[in-house]
Write a structure and sequence with these properties.
This is Heme exporter protein D. The chain is mostly helical and about 60 residues long. The protein has two helices and no strands.
């Protein structure tokens, strides 16, 4: 193992704050992207369903 203990691993040679905050921000951005994509897809499906119903009622 590259680190002698778990505390050394979490600290990462005094760069732990930077490393773990970068991972955290990246995960937040990925989760945010996933949520907004799903919401957008849901909204788009509603719009398409309404459009299809309008086309069929003509």
């Amino acid at each position: 193992m590259a680190f002698e203990s778990w505390s050394d691993f979490w600290e990462m040679g005094k760069h732990g704050l930077y490393v773990w905050s970068t991972y955290g921000i990246s995960m937040l951005l990925l989760v945010g992207l996933l949520v907004t994509t799903r919401l957008h897809r849901k909204q788009l499906r509603k719009q398409l369903k309404k459009r299809i119903q309008r086309e069929q009622s003509r």
